[in-house]
Design goal:
It contains 15 helices and 13 strands. It has helices spanning about 20-25, 35-55, 65-75, 90-100, 120-125, 150-160, 180-185, 210-215, 225-230, 235-240, 245-265, 265-285, 315-325, 355-370, 380-385; strands spanning about 10, 60-65, 85-90, 105-110, 135-140, 140-145, 150, 165-170, 190, 205-210, 305-310, 330, 340-345. It binds pyridoxal-5'-phosphate. Pyridoxal-5'-phosphate (PLP) binds near residues 67, 92, 172 and 192. This is Alanine--glyoxylate aminotransferase family protein.
Length: about 400
Amino acid sequence: MSLAAGHPVIAIPGPSPLPDRVARAAHRASPDIYGEDLALLNQQVMAQLKRLAGTTAHVAPYIGNGHAAWEASAANLFEPGDRALILTSGHFGQSWAQTLAAMGVVVEVLDFGLQPADPDRLAERLRADPEASIKAVMLCQIDTASAAMADIPAMRAAMGDHPALLVVDAIASLGCAPMMMDDWGVDVLIAASQKGLMCMPGTCFVWFSEKARARGRTTLTSPYWDWHPRAEGDALWRYWGGTPPVQHVFALDEALRMILDEEGLFAVWARHAALARAVWAAVDAWGEGDSGIRLPIRDPAARAASVTAIAIPGAEALRSWTAAHCGVTLGIGLGATDPANALRVAHMGHCNAAMVLGTLGVMEAGLTALGIPHGKGALEAAARVIAEPA
Ligand SMILES: *Cc1c(COP(=O)(O)O)cnc(C)c1O
């Protein structure tokens, strides 16, 4: 017998659950792409994207995923041979560094293992660069593999007077954890549609400050990736470098309305924080009695709001069990120290307490079914967080 019938729960950190409303908004025939209605809708979406990021500066939309946004931003920021300092906290920072190196950027890595970046080490490195050879400081706000969350204002403060641009990959954090691009002094921000933005994969965005724009075009700035026409938007096709992804624009409009106008950004951040704490409480309880179940990131302030990485002996078997028996798909232990004994639980985007408590309950059942030792009281602990989230 399987208990997996019913609505599947896909608790992987992207693509995140797609709200029915967003899917319905996209479910339509293509309208006239030269008509005024679509142009106005697109402008509205661009304005909402700026609200989401906390900026009055510029945003350039692209058809593509997060990897496309990495290339889009790099193509506008660097000449081949320019030096970038990237602070890595796991798989995504490392793979971003490889993309930059493949584009001809001289990449210097400050490696923090699977822990969040340390502002003191950044400050120390920049003090040793009085001639300002480093053009950009780059990091993931949340590295989705390690689930480490960086303190972006602390990074900006650590940069002091150094003129490098601050470039933040917020693909796994925008719409989940606080981001105030202008207030925090972020020059370039990167996100994609399929995580906190609650849309299907397929579009991505690069927000950029006036200081970043003022650098102008480089030899890497090919016509498709050039952010200037996309941000200036004097015609609909210019925003998207050709035919707009019409159905995606409708989906984005619906999702951004849900986040910004209905639930509200502060409430969205608070919901993610509470759901994350419920997961951490369960893991702490499972970890009682030397079970080996634990959160690799000890400091709660350094943990992601959108995804939790967990070390669990037998994680691979547990993942198979929850999917086969209960319809719950957990994230793989991507980039973990011991991937076979690690997994990730996403609580990202369109996610509520029932989904998180259901996922934790199914994990508890799997631990029991597979005879994986675990402490008791995990569900009570999670329920207590949900009962008193503040
Ligand atoms: C998902 C993710 C990426 C890659 O995005 P794709 O859409 O898979 O190309 C990059 N960085 C972070 C932090 C991510 O979470």
